[in-house]
Amino acid sequence: MPRMKRLLLLILIVSFFLSGFAESPPRKHQKLHFVTRVIDGDTIVLWNGDRVRYIGIDTPETWNKVEYFGPEATEANRKLVEGKEVRLEFDVQLSDHYGRLLAYVFVDGTFVNAWLVENGYAVVSTHPPNVKYHDLFLEKQKEARENKRGFWKN
Question: Which residue in the list 61, 75, 82, 139 is annotated as catalytic?
Answer without folding.
Answer: 61
